[in-house]
Structure formats: structure tokens, C-alpha cells
Amino acid sequence: MNLVVVGTSWITDMFISAALETRLIRFLGTCSRSTDKAEAMNLKYGGEKTYLNIEEVCMDADVDIVYIASPNSLHYPQTKKALLAGKHVITEKPIVSNMREMDDLIETSKTSKGLLFEAITTLHMPGLEIIRQHLSMLGTISIISTEFNTFSNKLPEYRSKKDPNELSLKFSGSTLVDLGIYNVYFVMLLFGIPTNVHYFANKGFSGVDLSGALIMQYPDKIAVAVVAKDNHGDNRTLIQGENGYIKVAGYVNTLKSIEIVVDKERFEFYVPNYPNHMRHECEAMFSCIARNDRQTMFEWLDLSKSVTEILQTARKDAGIVFAADSKND
Amino acid sequence: MNLVVVGTSWITDMFISAALETRLIRFLGTCSRSTDKAEAMNLKYGGEKTYLNIEEVCMDADVDIVYIASPNSLHYPQTKKALLAGKHVITEKPIVSNMREMDDLIETSKTSKGLLFEAITTLHMPGLEIIRQHLSMLGTISIISTEFNTFSNKLPEYRSKKDPNELSLKFSGSTLVDLGIYNVYFVMLLFGIPTNVHYFANKGFSGVDLSGALIMQYPDKIAVAVVAKDNHGDNRTLIQGENGYIKVAGYVNTLKSIEIVVDKERFEFYVPNYPNHMRHECEAMFSCIARNDRQTMFEWLDLSKSVTEILQTARKDAGIVFAADSKND
Predict the structure, then answer these.
(1) pLDDT band per the 50, 70, 90 thresholds, residue A264
(2) Which domains are delineated in chain B?
(3) Least buried of A123, A309, B58, B145, by fewest C-beta within 10 Å?
């Protein structure tokens, strides 16, 4: 299976590295508007071909899998083109900007030869299963608090009234959508779809959320997600129950440091993460492609859809509108 | 100055101990419906007199200061009686159940010979000033998250459909009002009165909040307070800024473990807390009485009023109604 990547940022770099570790794919080449950047990536990982745009990738019959890590607003149109060309597509989170795009991609994937995936580490991390298996030890759970604070090096640019992609509503930039998506997946994978969603945002000059607090309300529990690109936090996730709590230190995209405290006894889990944590999702998605497992694919797309709906509801609640929201195809 | 306490719970015990440490008062006696309990408290701390009700305390000319730590709903009527009798009154937090009671107490205190205080440790802890002095090091602050989770030993009783005072709407029991009041004070003392307040509650059979998440929104920042009596948490408070964060480990009623992380450099403060942390508030209030400092007293009552208003707004948002809310005097 030949892999081509779209985009040349650090996450693409990390993805290729993880992909090669699985030994399930061959790295074929890189698509970028900048041929220099594409060639540099190819040089680093042994790619052969460069592409200037998604159309060139689609036309190359040697391409089996396309990994898309362009600015968020381009995920949908590029993904759709690659799917229609019969490629397998792995799109970096967030796979889409809104529900309209999500519904369309799911429809498209039903008739495409290619499989479609949202690249979201949380779903595939060993820690998720460890947590799931120990939830019942906590007794009745009533509070989940989870955080994703990463200071953006684009913030100074934004503060000087420029509009860097990562924080631009034109490119579907949003701290909640970009970072909070991990927290939403985490909570939803463990506790299902919330009854109510509210988002309180600290907005910048353009109306984008630089940080905020998301409330996911369930009949018997409340989850709070704090997300920020405009400050430094001490990232931690807690699941609080009648008998004790489970604590994840650090980010919920890796879930690598997990402890449980029940009846005041503390136990730290061994979490068998690969050093490159993206290898877990790569193995899961590549093997799914290898066995052409469309059922699993649609189950995962269902999760993507639920998460997209939560994020869209949250954005609506806080009045955060993407350029993509007003587009018609 | 002769002190009489109303109530015989652990907090009264701790208060008398702290009060005696200040060497500013003499412990005169205890008021309780149970003479046995009153005598036991007197025996422990050298009190002489017992009283069956607040009226007996009011009639005793030897009493200078009354400390009230009865169930929450009784704070207001007992405080008012003692004030009208010309006593100095220190009422355990929450000083009142709602704004009507607050306004009435402030009016009453204007003409009373006695001074009036809400006993709230946070206001008087050395850690508060340490944090205040270092806030500017964080640069622009956008997120504050603070927690107060203490599993209630009354929860099993509540779960079996009884209505223990601490969790009873009849007695103005509420997890937010009882525990979250510390978080609200903490946030308000540092950042002032929020623009918007929302409270999301996990309610029990009676409609009382067993846990919940409070949002305090400011024009440029958001504070989230998680409170719980129905689970175990890992209590922590974070103030997150562009340059780093201040972290308080443990509860915001003691503020005894404080660190600052700026530009990835970590520094832990020395916090000069007394072993009995209530001694700080005792010193502050007793010395205020000793110098008859009504100006400071009214400044503190203004804070009590602001906090009462925030709590009342939050309760209204979540539909939590106390019996005291529908009473007319």
C-alpha cells in the first residue's frame, strides 16, 4: 500500500515516521504547494514523488492511501476529491468543519472504493481501554474534568491583528475544534453522547475562541473541558466517582500517564504506548484498510459524526462561525 | 472579650481552638439544644456557661462575641437576633441563604453596637496575598479553574431518601453554597465580580445539587469551579496566563501549597500558615472588633454581599430553591 501525504507540518512528519514503523505501507511521496518542502520531506523519509495539489495525487494510480493534514478548512474538499478518485483517505482531526460536510463525506464513502478515517489518536490509545476497564471501580461517576492547554506560537501573530491559519475562522481554526476535539472524543468514547452542550469562550478580535470551557451535560454527570491556546496550563484529566478517581496526567491525545485512587489506595497503570504515539492509530487504520473492514470504518465514522455534532453545537452556543459554515457545494 | 459559640460540630471545635490561640478572647460557653454536647465542648476548652437557644445567649450581658455555626438556614435568624441584642457576631459561611437576608443583615448592622462578620478562611489566608502579588508575572490571564470536592459522609443517608441537614434544601444545604463559596470568594477576591454566572448541577432526588460546575465569565477570562459532595476528586486550583500558571494544590480554604510556573521555571512558595488555619480569620476578626473598625467590617460585608449574589444567581440558573427563599419576615 503506497502512502502519499498532503501537508508538510510537524504532524505530517510524525505521521510518516509512525506509518513507516508499522511496516504496512510504503511512503510514496508528498503533496505541497512548496516543492522544496515536499522534497525535503521525501528526502527525510525516502519518498519519490512530489505533487503540487490534491488533483495530481488523485490522478496518480500508484497512490493507495492519502493522509491529509492541510489547514482544517481544506480537509473536506481534499478528502472528498481523494475519495471520489477511489483512494483510501486518512484525514487529520478535525475531519470536517461542520455537519453538512460530515454527512456528505459519509454519503460519499458509501459508494467509494476507498476507505475513510479521521486520524484521532485518542480512539486508538491503549490507555483508553485501561480506563474503560476500571471505570466501574469508581462507583457512580458524577464529574469528569479534562483539559487541553497548549500555548500557540501563532498567538503573537494573532495579537498583532494578523490571522494565522491555525486561529483563523476562514480556515476553520478554533481552539475548541482543534484541541478540545480530543477531550470531546475522550468523554464521548467513555460516556456516550451528552444531553446538553454549552461552550463559554474567550474570543479574540476576529471572534475566534482563544480559550474556553465546554460543558457536556449527562442525566447523571457533568463533563467540563477547559481548552486554551492563549495560556499555559497543567494538563490533567479526572474522572470522579463515589469511590475515588482516575487521573490522567498530561494530554488526552496520548493517555500515557494514568493512575487510579480508590479508597485512598493509589495505583499507577503500566501503559504500553509506542514512543511515537501516532503508531497506534496508524496500525489500527492501516490494518483496517488491509482487511477492507468497512464495518469498523463506519463505526468510527459514526463517532466522528457524533463529535462533529457536539463541536458544531458548542460553536453555535458560543457564536463561533466558520467561513465553511456558509458555503454551499 | 467573652466568646460564646452556637453549635457543637467539628468546625466549632476547630474555631474555639483557633480563637484561644489568638489570646484575644476568653471562651465563655456553648449554646446547643443538647446540654450534654454543650457541656462536653465547655469541658474541652474551659467554658463555663451553657445556653439552650440563641435567646438565652442574647440575654446574657457577659457575652461579647457570638460565633454561629448552626445549620445554614439558621444563620440569618440567629445572627439577626444577636446583632439586635448588640453582640458582635461571627457567622460561619454562608452567612445567609439569599440576598434578602444579606441586605437585611447589612441594614441591621448599621445601627447595631455589635460588629458582623462572615467567617470565611480564604479571605484571611496568607496564600491569597502571595498569589495576588504574583499574578502579574503570568501576563494576560484567561482561564481560572478551581475545585472543591469533598465526599460527604451524609451521602449514604441522602441516597436512602433521607434529608440530612447538610444536603437539605430546608436547611439551605447545597454543595455549591457550602463548598463552592470558597471558590467563588477566591476568584472574586482576585478578579472581581463576574459579568455572567452559570451553574450546571447534578441533582439528587430532592433537587439539591450533589455536585456541579460553576462558570464565572469575565470580559477577558473564564473561571470554572467544580464542586462535589458525591465523589472524590484531586483538588487543585489553576490560574492560567500567557507566561505560565499558578497552581494551588488542595483546597482554597487553606491555600497552603502554592507554586508558580513561568517560562517553564517552577517555584514553590513558602506559605506561613498556622497549623490551625482558622487562626488567621480569628486574628483578623477579633482585632477588628478590638479596634472597633467598622470600615473594614463593611468592606468585608460588601464582599459577602457580592458572593451571596453570585451564589443566588447560580442557584437560580440551576433551579435550586431553598425553603428560606420563599420566607417573608
Answers:
(1) confident
(2) 2-121+279-294 (3.40.50.720), 123-274 (3.30.360.10)
(3) A309
